[in-house]
Amino acid sequence: MRIAVVGSGVSGLSTTWLLNEYSDHEVHLFEADDRVGGHTNTVHFDPPQHASSPLSLTKVPDHPQDAATSGTPSSQAKPNLQSTPVDTGFIVFNEVTYPNFLRFLRLQGVDILDSDMSFSVSRSSVPRLPRSFPPIPSFGSSLPTITNAGQAVWANRNNQRGASDGDDDEDALLPERGAFEWAGGSPSALFCQFTSLFDPSHWRMVWEIIRFNHEALVTLRLDSNKKRQKGQTEREESICEWLDARGYSDSFRKNYLIPMTACIWSTPPGTALQMFPAVTLLRFMHNHHLLQILNRPQWLTIRGGSSEYIQRILSKLPPGRLHTGQSGAVQPGSAKKFMDGNTREWTFVTADGQEHRFDKIVFATHADISLGILDAALDGGEPLRTALEQFKFSKNKTVLHSDERLMPVRRAAWSAWNFLAEEQDGGVDLDRVTLTYWMNLLQSLPSEKHGPVLVTLNPPPGPSYPAKHLIVREQAYEHPIYTSDSVHFQAEVEKLQGSMGLYFAGAWLKYGFHEDGFSSGMRAAIALGAKAPFEPIPAERPVPHLLLATALVALAERARSIATALFASPVVFGLIVANVLIELAVNIAFAFTTSADSRQSRKCQIRNTLREIRIRWEGSLGHVPNGDKPPLWHPERAINGKGSH
């Protein structure tokens, strides 16, 4: 058969790989963009040569040509920094919940590196009144001194940019960065803001994380035992309703669950809280080991960037089978069913005016794009149309840059994922997901070789946007928005697979991640007759029965609620004031010390160095033939819960 695959993201590539190499079908891949890969996007990072020195307190020019006259020290220019490939979309995966994708990487001989999946929250607040004393540069605070209208001088020795020029709005003041920060990598990161040690709401958040992990498992057990009525949605209860019913605090929501959910699905916090189905979120967190503090899987990344695996697939595709740009852009409304006697085919037209005819079509695009192409072929009451209409997507902007202002103020809080919240008047956060990926840590890119390598999702507009001369690239991606309706209609789309000769593949048919997209593409290809080299397996985990732990958590929560009144005494206020003074003293001491490199970054670099040494050592023993070197990671071991070390 002649089969068209529309869309070259991970789902389309997975389908094309199997149909091209493991079937007798003639497969053609269509991509509207000039680039193949979708969210798999490795770009060339050329370090900006005027990145500011972390210890500098001078103003950095807004334009590279102004560097010579800005008074910027010559030490700020780093002409010896090296370029490197960097991922801006799909970045990391792990040993346990990506079984099919990792088996594919093993077959292709793609090299992998250890990575990290730490998380932090940094909240900016509204500007305060002018201070009568100059702020002290340190890891502990970053407060602006208002010197005149429209100019705020920042005191942050780790990511100082200098004074804001006020070009966007002369009367606007930048928010106070780092007013609240914490990270989950270690106890020192959890209490990187020293006053959090004596903040009852922070301790309650820590306790409620433990409580949440156990109550989530209880909900999942009840849901798995409940027989759903025919036609009922998976779960109409949103995560907001779930939290309300169990009395979780605002601190837990604002500083943990909402940032975590918004970051995972690149969804605005308000949408994530109000619309996201509770059971879907809890099941995803359980499958990805996010409901446990210990025994989490090792995260990985692809050496040289995720685009490495794309070339392995395209190199096997015969000439004339890949259509990109104008020749690959299938026009909306152009798909039609063609019937001539016993011949039943699909036709569509691309942007270059060419008409194409195929026996089957695999739509590996987002649901709204697929529906647009099929618009003329589907009647108003068609079940397929109804199903595809339930899926919505949000557009998010990513910026590859070197501006460290888009990281937490306190170096101890720097993590792989850094959620940046902005508080408005009234204590309500701005409904925008802003997240900075620390690529130096995620992809083992030493900062001394490449400088700061950062990818920020939806950076704040105005003065807080990355400096122009530190921006390397800007890109837009779309992510699915999950509601109870969309989760319900995932199953409906699966029921309609193959009807009318149409198949659908995409990460949006599951949780929205690379493994989901890859496995979806595999299933579509297998349904069309491909003989896969391995059987795709689900990444779902059974829910454990922890009756004793659940009882202890419930008892402790009851005791906490009774003792809540004890935390409302004036003594706590006095302790907080005293610790502000202590933090100020600590700041003075640390102002004269230099920041150490990230421990976790060094750990990943050490593990990857040992991995290379072991590979060379095994090769020197002659046990492994050249060109047939097995990877150190084995999917079978990972599936059984064993790591690579």
From TrEMBL:
Which GO molecular-function terms appear in the entry? Answer: oxidoreductase activity
Question: Which residue stretches belong to region Disordered?
Answer: 39-82, 626-645
Q: Which InterPro entries match?
A: FAD/NAD-bd_sf (IPR036188), Zeta_carotene_desat/Oxidored (IPR050464)
Kindly give the SUPFAM superfamilies that the UniProt entry links to this protein.
FAD/NAD(P)-binding domain
Tell me which domain of life the UniProt entry assigns to the organism this sequence originates from: Eukaryota
Comp. bias (Polar residues) = 67-82
Where exactly are the transmembrane stretches of this chain?
571-593
Name of a matching Pfam family: NAD_binding_8
Q: Which UniProt keywords apply?
A: Membrane, Transmembrane, Transmembrane helix
Question: PANTHER family, from UniProt?
Answer: AMINE OXIDASE DOMAIN-CONTAINING PROTEIN, PROTOPORPHYRINOGEN OXIDASE
Q: What is this protein called?
A: FAD/NAD(P)-binding domain-containing protein
